[in-house]
């Protein structure tokens, strides 16, 4: 399943129907919501035409923007996420060498903005998603995770994220950001951590 969602030719993102998610072992590796390819296209086209940094500049009343997260912080967050998607070794080297400057970009306060815009920023799976519909199935779903050896798990229920309220699946950004800090500053191996929502 993990190889499937990492393969750009085979991956359908959120368009996998429930029956395929179980059969192909991707259940829990992608958010539980199903979006058709056309719905996913609308999300990408919205970003393509307006862009999130530009949108942040147009949202001066947004509580997160008011708290000091600038459009430049958002741009930096997206650059770092792009590097992490392509080359995690490079991502963690950059983070370790620039930890003091980058910690507020990959975690608080910038991650709050990313969490509140999670549905528009989602590109690839970075953790496991368990919903109320997965009750009784979690033990079997965890086998879809790529690593059998996990040293650290950060779990969020998506509520009360940084005082922003219930962000649901968007709260996964908190688990991801915290584990990125554990890897860069605590010496955990990136393959041996598991973010969960």
Automatic annotation (TrEMBL):
The keyword Glycoprotein does not apply. InterPro entries: Aminoacid_DH-like_N_sf, Malic_N_dom, Malic_N_dom_sf, Malic_OxRdtase. Its cofactor is Mg(2+). One of its GO terms (molecular function) is malate dehydrogenase (decarboxylating) (NAD+) activity. PANTHER family: MALIC ENZYME-RELATED, NADP-DEPENDENT MALIC ENZYME. GO terms for biological process: malate metabolic process. The lineage of its organism: Eukaryota, Metazoa, Ecdysozoa, Arthropoda, Crustacea. It comes from Tigriopus californicus (Marine copepod). This is Malic enzyme. Keywords: Oxidoreductase. GO terms for cellular component: mitochondrion. Residues 84-197 form the Malic enzyme N-terminal domain.
């Amino acid at each position: 399943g993990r190889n499937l969602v990492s393969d750009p030719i085979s991956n359908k993102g959120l368009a996998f129907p429930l029956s395929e998610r179980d059969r192909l072992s991707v259940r829990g590796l992608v958010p539980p919501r199903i979006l058709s390819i056309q719905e996913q296209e609308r999300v990408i086209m919205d970003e393509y035409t307006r862009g999130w940094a530009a949108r942040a500049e147009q949202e001066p009343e947004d509580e997160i923007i008011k708290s000091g997260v600038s459009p430049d912080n958002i741009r930096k967050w997206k650059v770092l996420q792009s590097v992490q998607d392509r080359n995690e070794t490079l991502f963690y080297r950059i983070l370790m060498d620039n930890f003091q400057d980058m910690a507020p970009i990959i975690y608080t306060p910038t991650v709050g903005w990313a969490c509140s815009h999670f549905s528009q920023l989602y590109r690839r799976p970075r953790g496991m998603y368990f919903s109320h519909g997965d009750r009784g199935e979690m033990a079997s779903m965890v086998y879809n995770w790529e690593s059998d050896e996990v040293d650290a798990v950060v779990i969020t229920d998506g509520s009360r994220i940084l005082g922003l309220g219930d962000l649901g699946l968007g709260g996964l950004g908190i688990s991801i950001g915290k584990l990125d800090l554990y890897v860069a500053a605590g010496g955990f191996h990136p393959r041996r951590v598991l973010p969960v929502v």
